[in-house]
Amino acid sequence: MFQEPQDEFGFERPAQKRHSFQKYFYLFGIALAYYVLFYEADGVESKVDDSLHGLDPNQYHGRYPHSLLTLFFPYTLLRDVVLDQPVSDSDIPFFWHVHNSDEKVYKNILKGCYGLQLIELNDVDSIKEAKELEIVKGLDRYKHVITSPFVRETSEIFTTDHFGRMICFFRHPIDYDLHPSLPVFEAKDNWMTRLLSNWHKDEITFKELGVAKHVVRQCCLMGEMDKMKTSIIRIAEHMNWIFANGMSDEAGQQCIDNALEGFPSEKWADHDSPAWQSFYKFNRFDAELYELSQSTWRHQIQTIIPWKLQVSRNQTDEDE
Predict the structure, then answer these.
(1) pTM
(2) FRET label pair with 7: which of 15, 29, 77, 304, CA 20 to 30 Å apart?
(3) Rounded CA gap, 91 and 142, in Å?
(4) What phi and psi, each to the nearest 5 degrees, are found at residue 96?
(5) Strand stretches in the chain, DSSP E
(6) In this predicted model, what pLDDT tens digit does every residue of 83-112 receive, in sequence order?
């Protein structure tokens, strides 16, 4: 038969005291649970805010859910150049110029051959001012092109109402001709991968390489150093830009040829030499990005199509 527990002297414990102890223990447990729940929730909220880079977690910031913003922000404010077609009238062209010679030549072509106005954001202060003034609201993709060597900072000026559509020209690491305003990192290897992944000091992993490859594959209307004229014409037809001052196609292409005169060619290297082997080992990830940019350029022969074809395909999809 069940008996009430007794103390060491054999007497029963008073029921009231036992129940009182259980009551206080129960209340203490509730209080502890609330304490843990409150502070854990507060900690999670702080972590979410940090991962959102200060953005409002109740709003949508770009093409991806918030769970991916940690990896891909601010590139979420750039269009997926293949999937997001036809080009929207609200999109803003953005020429990301990393290399000096690419910048000078392509800017001259945009202005002289296509009659476009350039909004040049060549330093972080001008980018910050452009963001504060929300300049993208007043731009027209048929008239204006934003230009900057700073890809991450400039991407943040775009919004979900005015996405950026980025134009890129990639080079092999041996041909780098970096813009003087761009940063120099503590780690000297794989400069481009470090820039795109925002990983400037520690050893690069496949995570950082993956972020950089994401930018190359999805965010770039791709141009190649050894295919400049073809790249320029393809991008212009995709954006529905026409030659300035009523120039014919022949005259417009001659304008491009004139601008490209004297443009440097790719360097040649003996891939069996010790110097090349050492260089490649030190810049292996950047070399992979370059190889990816070449395959992306080839893929875009089929995917980066002229504006009229984009519209007709979209109309066909809607009819179906």
Answers:
(1) 0.79
(2) 29
(3) 10
(4) -90, 105
(5) 92-96, 117-120, 144-148, 164-170, 220-224
(6) 999 999 999 999 999 999 999 999 999 999
